[in-house]
Design goal:
Blueprint: H1 12-20, E1 38-39, E2 52-56, E3 62-69, H2 79-94, E4 99-105, H3 117-140, E5 146-153, H4 169-195, E6 209-215, H5 217-238, E7 252-256, H6 266-273, E8 286-291, H7 295-308, E9 316-321, E10 326-331, H8 332-337, E11 349-353, H9 369-384, E12 391-394, E13 397-401, E14 411-416, H10 430-443, H11 447-463
Parallel strand pairs: 1-2, 3-5, 4-5, 4-6, 6-7, 7-8, 8-14, 11-14
Antiparallel strand pairs: 2-3, 9-10, 11-13, 12-13
Helix pairs in contact: 2-4, 4-5, 5-6, 9-11
């Protein structure tokens, strides 16, 4: 029976309807093909329930996609078969080839069901990343890394009745944190251990990368799973260094419209703000993107948090801002009822479309490799010349750092223009998808790697 929780003020009738329209708790990906991987492009095979899929891009390149699922208590649905099969498939592939691992955790009203729209969007992103990696590797004269996506599924929707499903916001928030505190940290840590493995004797070094993306309550899942890891690494990295180069998790973590309160982010926000100068080769670690038009977290979230925290005691805390060399006052009450992305005290950036290009953009032609390389070079130059109040262009969007945020501060909390992300569930605008891909590329390429790419890029242009 569905055990969805509703706020006490809701009437009994909607609760009864919710029970009738309960989304079942089930595992969607339970099939393992004879060879371990199902070819989606094979017309004679159906891969809707397979744990691992092999997919061909429009350019004829191949990437793989695996599914790992969790129940409402945050426990792995199938530790011995599903999780083990996906992780071992990745590890085996990584024994002989470099990888680009991209993890996506869906949010509210989504799941690992075969017809879920988030899966289609994720496949599209992986396809484009694969083609871009092949093209850039060919440019540099190196073997392309293999792209492997991992989709972490959980029951993001508990009621299937339209309109009434909007009342499940708080129930799913609680579940998201349970999932994050459960087996997600284990899975992400195993993937990071694959990334950090020692190069074997057949290669001169590992270029394997790991990016983790969470949307909506998926952002809450990811943050709950990794916040203590990020805090520990921040503290360990700060010890004994004049210029702070901070280690994060994997190569980058990106949270889109995350639905958790700013109070959970306070230790990281405070520690990062206390640093006066970061190393000029510091790369982004965590990017939180919240739309100004995300009304679910802007208004409904605040109302719900107000009632759920009404008996809590709060105070105003003081923190030091090393950039402005002044102190700032932060209200614990406001941080407890405000979703992290809407909390102005912690915002470090704004993200806007280039002036005059505010209209929505979907299904644009694939970006030419020369243009994509130039994007990376320009963004890398701008990032390494970062300063308070500085601006970085990523394709058709501008990332502007606040005057109150230190240069190269790797914790980015960006308030996003409504023309780029229209509402809570929107992640479809091509400019946002391209921005995230470029952010992954920026965070996973050292300054030396970028310079090598620049040199070979210029040589190819001269030959042309």
């Amino acid at each position: 029976m569905c055990t969805t929780y509703y706020p006490i003020l809701l009437a009994a009738l909607p609760i009864l309807l919710g029970i009738v329209g309960c989304v079942p708790l089930q595992q969607y990906r339970s099939t393992q093909s004879d060879d371990g991987i199902c070819d989606v492009n094979d017309a004679d095979r159906k891969c809707g329930t397979d744990m691992v899929q092999r997919i061909k891009t429009d350019e004829g390149n191949m990437f793989q996609l695996g599914f790992i699922e969790f129940d409402d208590q945050g426990q792995l649905w199938d530790r011995d078969k599903q999780k083990q099969h996906v992780v071992e498939t990745i590890a085996k592939l990584g024994e002989t080839q470099d990888l680009i691992m991209v993890v996506f955790v869906h949010g509210w009203k989504h799941s690992a069901a075969p017809n879920d729209g988030n899966i289609d969007t994720f496949r599209s992103v992986l396809s484009d990343l694969t083609d871009a990696e092949v093209a850039m590797s060919n440019l540099k004269g190196v073997e392309p890394s293999k792209v492997f996506g991992v989709y972490l599924g959980w029951r993001g929707e508990s009621v299937s009745i339209p309109v009434l499903d909007n009342l499940t916001f708080w129930d799913r928030k609680n579940t998201a944190h349970k999932v994050g505190y459960g087996g997600v940290t284990e899975v992400l840590s195993e993937l990071e251990s694959i990334r950090d493995r020692q190069p074997d004797k057949h290669r001169d070094g590992s270029r394997t990368k790991l990016a983790v993306i969470g949307h909506s309550f998926g952002g809450a899942v990811v943050f709950s799973a990794l916040v203590q890891v990020l805090e520990n690494r921040m503290i360990a990295s700060k010890r004994g260094a004049d210029e702070q180069r901070i280690k994060g998790f994997g190569d980058i973590v990106v949270l889109i419209n995350p639905a958790f309160e700013a109070m959970r982010y306070t230790p990281l926000a405070d520690m990062s703000t206390e640093v006066e100068k970061y190393d000029d080769q510091q790369l982004p670690i965590l990017a939180i993107l919240t739309s100004e038009a995300d009304y679910a977290t802007k208004y409904a979230f605040k109302i719900g948090r107000y009632f759920s925290t009404i008996f809590e005691m709060n105070r105003v805390i003081t923190r030091r801002n090393a950039t402005t060399k002044s102190t700032e006052q932060v209200s614990e009450k406001q941080a407890s009822v405000t979703a992290v992305g809407h909390f102005s005290n912690y915002q470090t950036h704004t993200l806007k479309p280039i002036t005059g290009q505010e209209q929505r953009i979907f299904n644009t032609p694939k970006i030419n490799i020369d243009v994509r390389v130039q994007y990376l070079l320009d963004a890398s130059d701008a990032w390494h010349n970062d300063k308070p109040g500085g601006e970085i262009q990523f394709g058709q969007v501008l990332l502007h750092r606040s005057q109150f945020s230190a240069a190269h501060n790797p914790y980015l909390l960006a308030y996003v223009d409504k023309h780029l992300i229209a509402d809570h569930n929107d992640i479809a605008d091509d400019r946002i998808i391209e921005f995230i891909k470029q952010l992954i590329m920026l965070s996973s390429h050292t300054k030396q790697e970028v310079e090598d790419t620049r040199r070979k890029f210029m040589m190819r242009r001269e030959i042309k």
